[in-house]
Specification:
Radius of gyration: 20 Å
Distance between the termini: 48 Å
Shape: globular
Number of strands: 16
Number of helices: 1
């Protein structure tokens, strides 16, 4: 009896180097799910009968390099931008993305919806490019009501898009903008812009990588999420599936 009990304990014990992590579902196809954990996207197995969708926040078990999706994390709340074109599917390719706004920090950013077979969500992405001399621009969202001290979890998928002659130096940043009311547009803000996450010299996609993290509202008013692209020559930064949830 003692031997059987000991064997059961050994069998139930975690293996070496096991860990539990959270991640985002990047893509779902027949018999394959890809997830993004800590900025890296890779395939993961899942339990039979699981229903998964792009953008789901999932809990994963990793053991010696093997990743298993245990399930979708509950209680995280809906995407607060769900009704405001978060994955850029609501406009025809070649057009500016509906329900989003542009602002040129330096130079002139050229923003178009483009079809991308590797898009993490749907079939389209926002493509932000600029003139040969370089540009930095915001593409920012509809307003979300906030209360001072309120915490949100924000994420987005992004990738570089380069021509063969380009140097891989495009930068991407996920930024929160703060406003006193729902009608003000950038740069009429009520607090300093908050950089949530950024990546320099962003790699050619696919795969797309994830920028994300928590942000705390410094004011009572409204938050808009900005996608900041820094490009030169014929570089572009591509964006998809912006998610904002209450923490």
């Amino acid at each position: 009896m003692t031997t059987n009990t000991t064997n059961q304990v050994i069998a139930a014990a975690p293996g070496p180097f096991s860990q539990v992590r959270t991640g985002l579902v990047a893509s779902v196809t027949t018999n394959q799910v890809r997830v993004t954990v800590g900025g890296t996207t890779f395939p993961a197995t899942y339990l039979e009968g699981a229903t998964l969708a792009v953008g789901d926040l999932v809990v994963l078990l990793e053991q010696q390099g093997s990743w298993l999706i245990l399930g979708v994390q509950a209680g995280v709340g809906p995407n607060l931008l769900a009704d405001f074109n978060p994955s850029f599917e609501d406009s025809e390719p070649g057009n500016f993305p509906a329900q989003w706004f542009p602002f040129n920090i330096s130079g002139v950013g050229v923003v178009q919806v483009q079809v991308d077979p590797a898009a993490p969500s749907g079939t389209q992405v926002a493509n932000v490019a600029g003139p040969a001399v370089g540009s930095q621009s915001y593409l920012y969202s509809q307003p979300i009501p906030v209360t001072s001290g309120q915490i949100f979890n924000v994420s987005v998928y992004t990738a570089g898009h380069y021509q063969p002659t380009d140097v891989i130096t495009a930068d991407a940043a996920l930024v929160a903008l703060w406003f006193a009311n729902a009608t003000n547009l950038y740069p009429t803000t009520s607090a300093v812009d908050t950089v949530i996450s950024s990546a320099n010299d962003i790699a050619q996609g696919p795969p797309y990588t994830t920028l994300g993290g928590p942000v705390t509202a410094p004011v009572t008013g409204f938050m808009r999420i900005a996608l900041r692209s820094t490009t030169q020559d014929s570089q572009a930064v591509r964006w998809d599936l912006v998610i904002v949830r209450n923490a």
